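User: Predict the structure for this protein chain, please.
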Amino acid sequence: MTFSSGPLQGIRVVEQGTFITGPCCGMMLADLGADVIKIETPGSGDPYRAYQTGIYSAHFQAYNRNKRSLTLDLKSPADQQLRDHLVAEADVFIQNFRPGAAERLGAGHARLTAMNPRLVYTSISGFGATGPYAGRPTYDSVAQALSGFLSVVTDPDQPRFLGPALADAITGIYAAYGTLGALVARGRTGKGAHVEVSMMEAMAHFAIEPFTALFALGKAPAPNDRPRLAQAHILRTADDRLVVIHLSSLDKFWDELTAALDAQHLRDDPRFATRLARVAHFDALHAALEAITLTRSRAAWVAIMDARDVPFAAVNSIAEAAQDPQAQALGLIVPLLQDGTDAASHTVRPAISIDGRPEMSVAPAPRLDADGPAIRAALQADNAWPGRPDTPKRNAA
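Assistant: Here is the predicted structure, written as structure tokens:
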């Protein structure tokens, strides 16, 4: 596969998204070969461009690779007409405005699908189009909290958010998933569809296991239930590093771990004799395991556990993960063509392999309006979709 190949080769996408949810949806489609034109505001572009400094932040680069950038002043009738020409030839339109904002910008579902009935129109919002919270502003942390997800992943005594913007990215992935389903359906019916997803709905669905526990058992899990039930431990080593072990439900993993740790005394301890006993005495087992792992370095334990059938891993930093032998074997990190000192030199390639081939060629996120002149010239010439130089003849979809 190349930038313009993959299963979505020939699919044309107009993305009018900002920050993470809409751009992540567009990136997921672009990673599969779709031609994504990102419409931005002249001068400043997507606000995520300037999230920390400059106008090409690492945050923006993360979610906007494999796209083209076009700036349009949508208060201008001429620029709105250019956008309309793109939409008329597009397969997908993505927006993540608050409900009602798209209509004010002339990009509402009814208007755009009237000019292109085959259009898959994907709307992403915080809380959906209706309901008492529909007009509220929202961000990742708000969606995590309201959906219930945060309650099962944070310690109530020391509440902290988890690292990256999970709700934003997960919602973008759900939006791409819905868009792909609508494209498949269009292949049968010839008609487009309106795909809607909110951050609240996405995160509630992502937390489907605790919701199911609530409705099946009458009680949702507490934040520490999953590691206890899964027998997952984060253990400190002699050099103040961390390793993870996950025993799950198979006794063979307990046997292998105690053999690796040379800990027959733990196997003989009645508190740890069965899986349910180990669940009941989770804290005591954790302390006993860490007393052992504190006697050697992380590297030493990695070598020891690697020789046994133990589900384990060193807790890698991002830098260590990029250099990990398994990541290297998978070709997980790929180079990007640099065009400035503020540009990332490498990125994580798409996670999917098709027919045994991962996508190893990734184009960096576009500079603001980098493709604008060429796109405008093509539209003004014949109103047709302005193809990329690397795009072969369009496939029907």
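The CA atoms of residues 318 and 324 lie 10 Å apart.
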